[in-house]
Design goal:
Helix content is 42%, strand content 10%. It has a seven-stranded mixed sheet with strand order 1-9-6-2-5-3-4, sandwiched between helices. Strands 7-8 form a two-stranded antiparallel sheet. It has 14 helices and nine strands. It has a single domain (78-327), classed as Glycerol-3-phosphate (1)-acyltransferase (3-Layer(aba) Sandwich). By secondary structure, it is α/β, with parallel strands linked by helices.
């Protein structure tokens, strides 16, 4: 159940500075959270200041570790809080999405009036999923929808991420674990879900395959048919430039338990400023809405073979549109 929120977050000069200085985005995320939620294990002021100087994040990490008595931040299970999601969206994400990523929504007249829906979008960038964030912001503003993203499990319980984002942040923001049981439960609950049919293969495919859609997982087709939930395909153009020239070192990623380990000319900057893990290169994110699709009209069954064929058909349609945009 959502709890009553404090007064709206008021930006200080320091917050505006963090908004426009790349290593400060992580500070802004955590400060905003601490305004609304108790976070005794979170970052402190001195530690925030260290984020902003080369190599200072490592000293801040050591100071926080000592302050916590030589342990990691405690895990904290939280329920979805749509009020906090709305506050964070309006007060932090909207200026980033509109002013920095210059996100625009095209063909919005094709959107249905209400959910439930599976909004299926191509995924790329090899960084924090700003392409998903941007689409969620634009759809929420256009239709006043409450939107939940299907998110990689690392955003919920990876021990490294506990040092970046507050414990329980992804749950409070409405994230749904990218696991079959959680995915099906969200569909059964008639949610409006953002979903990447390419999965991890999409975001980790790297610069050389940036205009090549990976194979679509057919599970969303089967769930759409089972629960009679329409699919709204969306093509995102520009997300390939969120982390340009990056390659994925998959062996290191597996060893670290991460979905990807990107290496690019920006790697040295990230080593000096690890707080920039939330940052991405400035690009123009454009979202092209396609006609809603009801796969059960063409497929009364839910067999894996038929679902795979329909998923491949959808992938081919979006790939054709992507090819047209890349040729322009």
């Amino acid at each position: 159940m959502a709890t009553a929120l404090p007064p709206p977050y008021r930006f200080t000069w320091f917050d505006w500075f963090c908004l426009w200085y790349p290593p400060g985005w992580l500070i802004l995320f955590n400060r905003h959270w601490q305004h609304y939620k108790p976070d005794p294990d979170g970052w402190f002021w001195l530690e925030y200041g260290l984020f902003l100087v080369p190599g200072g994040f490592y000293l801040a990490l050591a100071l926080r570790w000592l302050r916590l008595g030589g342990r990691s931040p405690r895990p904290f299970a939280r329920a979805y809080d749509p009020d906090y999601q709305l506050a964070f969206r309006q007060e932090v994400l909207t200026p980033i999405v509109h002013c920095y990523f210059r996100a625009t929504l095209h063909n919005s007249e094709q959107l249905p009036e209400k959910g439930p829906l599976i909004v299926a979008m191509n995924h790329a960038g090899m960084c924090f999923p700003w392409d998903f964030v941007g689409l969620g912001i634009l759809l929420s503003q256009k239709k006043q929808w409450v939107i939940q993203p299907l998110a990689h499990t690392m955003f919920f319980d990876h021990p490294w991420l506990a040092w970046w984002l507050p414990a329980g942040w992804m749950q409070a923001m409405g994230g749904v674990r990218a696991e079959s049981r959680a995915f099906e439960q969200a569909i059964a609950d008639r949610a409006i879900l953002l979903y990447a049919p390419e999965g991890v293969r999409g975001i980790s495919k790297g610069w050389r395959q940036r205009y090549q859609l990976a194979v679509f997982d057919p599970s969303f087709i089967r769930l759409s048919i089972r629960y009679r939930v329409p699919i709204v395909p969306v093509l995102c153009w520009g997300n390939e430039h969120l982390h340009p020239l990056a390659v994925n070192l998959s062996a290191i990623a597996r060893w670290l338990g991460l979905p990807m380990f990107p290496v690019s000319p920006l790697t040295l900057v990230f080593i000096l400023f690890p707080s920039m893990g939330l940052w991405a290169m400035r690009t123009r994110l454009r979202y092209y809405i396609q006609s809603p699709w009801q796969p059960w009209v063409d497929n009364a069954g839910t067999s894996h073979r038929l679902a795979y064929q329909q998923a491949e058909s959808l992938r081919s349609c979006l790939q054709s549109l992507l090819n047209q945009l890349s040729d322009d």
